[in-house]
Amino acid sequence: LTIMGDASMEPNISPPDNTSQQDSLFSMTDVFLISLITGLFTYWFFFRKKKEKVPDLPKMQSVAAPVRDSSFIEKMKKTGRNIVVFYGSQTGTAEEFANRLSKDAHRYGLRGMAADPEEYDLSDLSRLSEIDKSLAVFCMATYGEGDPTDNAQDFYDWLQEADADLSGLRYAVFGLGNKTYEHFNAMGKYVDKRLEELGAQRIFELGLGDDDGNLEEDFITWREQFWPAVCEHFGVEATGEESSIRQYELVVHTDVNVNKVYSGEMGRLKSYENQKPPFDAKNPFLAQVTENRKLNEGGERHLMHLELDISNSKIRYESGDHVAVYPANDSSLVNQIGEILGADLDTIMSLNNLDEESNKKHPFPCPTSYRTALTYYLDITNPPRTNVLYELAQYATDAGEQERLRKMASSAAEGKALYLSWVVEARRNILAILQDMPSLRPPIDHLCELLPRLQARYYSIASSSKVHPNAIHICAVTVEYETKTGRLNKGVATNWLKNKVPDENRSNSLVPMYVRKSQFRLPFKPSTPVIMIGPGTGIAPFIGFIQERAWLKQQGKEVGDTVLYYGCRREREDYLYREELARFHQEGVLTQLNVAFSRDQAEKVYVQHLLKKNKENIWKLVNEENAHIYVCGDARNMARDVQNTFYEIVAEFGNMSQPQAVDYVKKLMTKGRYSLDVWS
Questions:
Q1: Domain-by-domain residue ranges, the chain?
Q2: Hey, which residues does 594 pair with through a beta bridge?
Q3: Chosen CATH of 276-327+456-518 out of 2.40.30.10, 3.40.50.1390, 3.40.50.720, 3.40.50.300
């Protein structure tokens, strides 16, 4: 209308001698403009209506469908379950415990299901009371420095933000942790506390498993008290003894297309032949080893530096991240298991879940051969847990051996002690048990059902992506030791990596891998000083840190003090990256290079002794220059001793009491100025 008004004003401004001509002209213009504007307005009006109305219905449907699919409540109702056991698992142990608890339920007239929280909508916990005699159990492992496992991250985030009313929920929590770590069982403790805050009813006390001690015994002890509490709460009784119930049925394939058979892939069939990003735990990248060299000059151990080519993978990493590799078991161990059980390892088979409603259709990718399963999918080198011994006992034809297996699987004190000495401390794996019990010859398919999955191994990346964007470096030491039975046990991954050599044909040089992000990060400002403490292979991430600081310096950035405290046994034996460190020190990138050689003199010298020696400089860097502290390596002794040394330094130079000094260091951790990348 404004435009129309503006146009109708124009004739009044024009000269009088052209009036009649212009009137006629402008009336035509007006008609044209009115038609155009009306048409545009009409089109816009209806088009806009369509845009608002049409998506409404499909949008509602697309949102509703996943919720229905991811509702564990609907699944429990449909399958008659009343106990759900969620697991937060990084290495498979929490998942294994969850499966054992869900299997236990039938002894009490109840039905359980194990569930991955990543696959379900956990806000449905508020609806669990709709099911009679319902209970949620949480087997939660703690990863790294008090973090949730990858598959429990969403659940953790939801718990932090949730304001749900869980007053109808009954629950119990068993945490899996390691006392050598600073934040022992942080995830289990948090879930237990947070569920109570949201109104849920705890029906049994929090269980705290310690992997530095005897995690299996901790679980059994908690479990044998947990079920009586469940019985009392619901007014039910055990229906009988624990029984062996197969979870999977064997299907042997005599005529199968070889292209349909898994040969070691973690997820998608033929994913190793046809690689597609993004690469992760279920879709690892096959990286070629371009370098594999021995780092140490002497001694019994084999310390090595490997370089993995990640060109064209689109994999990105930062200094401090971890690389996960999927190893393979030693073929000689696999062959011996096949021989002792009289099995044809090349038989193609599938193990299919008898519970058709289960999300987990197979214990590992199927169809496959027994050889592939025992090589790539199953853990055959760790001592088996008590539930495996219990299930295997039925196959021992010698009464004494059967009784021994059942005793070790029992909750009796004598049985626990026998399991600890004969299996755990003697480091007997499944092959050793079969060798030492001649009458024990289980069917190979049941053994494959019982053994846990072979897990990825994590290594701190020993390179900077600023300097090596297309390569990831690993620093590792091969694990090899003699057991109490005189057997030679070898670490699966390190010995497998040791044999990965650069190969033009690629056949023996490929490593399935992916990158796991870490919180172990250099300071945002390059000018911030860093104090790095990493003896042995704990030096790995610091090689990456130093490379990055050198690169930043080359870019003209102001780089703060870069201080390293490194330790090894002997200077001429296992001083890792000696030449590289000397060069960085000479170039001024490495401000201080402090090295402790523990066995080169009568009295052992460790990194913490060098920290005490330079305590005044340490305090100045931390207190006045806001230095960041990084510790990498052994959690059980080194990390603890280093932390205690910092308590002493802070107490002395900060004029603080011991509790105040501890609080000071804890605050550094909270602020991200004291970071740990440790293992036990």
A1: 72-234, 276-327+456-518, 328-454, 530-678
A2: 565
A3: 2.40.30.10
In angstroms, the CA 36 to CA 38 distance is 6
| Closest alpha carbon to 605 in 572, 562, 641, 653 | 641
Closest CA to 132 of 24, 235, 255, 256: 235
Angle in degrees, CA 115, 126, 80, rounded to 5 = 50
CATH architecture designation of domain 328-454: Up-down Bundle (1.20)
Q: What is the DSSP string of 97-127?
A: HHHHHHHHGGGGT--EEEE-GGGS-GGGGGG
Residues 6+ apart with CB under 8 A from 25: none
Write the pLDDT tens digit of every residue in 399-416.
Answer: 999 999 999 999 899 999
CATH: 3.40.50.720, 3.30.1330.30, 3.40.50.80, 3.20.20.70. Which one for 530-678?
Answer: 3.40.50.80
Q: Indicate if the pLDDT at residue 12 is higher than 70.
A: no
Residue 544 to residue 11: CA distance in whole angstroms: 79
Burial (CB count <10 Å: 0-12, 13-18, 19+), residue 268: middle
pTM of the model: 0.86
Question: Strands, DSSP E only, in 259-329?
Answer: 285-294, 303-309, 322-325
| Same fold flag, 72-234 and 530-678 | yes
Kindly state the tokens that stand for 618.
């340490």
Q: Select 72-234's CATH number: 1.10.1040.10, 3.40.50.360, 3.20.20.80, 1.20.1530.20.
A: 3.40.50.360
Mean pLDDT of 160-184: 93
Look up residue 460 and give its two tokens. Answer: 């701190």
| Cα gap 417→217, rounded to integer Å | 10
Just list the catalytic residues.
460, 632, 677, 679
Q: Residues near 70 by Cβ (< 8 Å), separated by ≥ 6?
A: 119, 120, 121
pLDDT tens track for 296-340: 988 889 999 999 999 999 999 999 999 999 999 999 999 999 999
**DSSP 8-state code for residue 561:** -
- Which tokens go with 230? 């469940």
Q: How confident is the model at residue 47 (pLDDT cuts 50, 70, 90)?
A: very low
DSSP conformational letter for 205: P
Residue in 363, 345, 341, 364 with CA at minimum distance from that of residue 354: 363
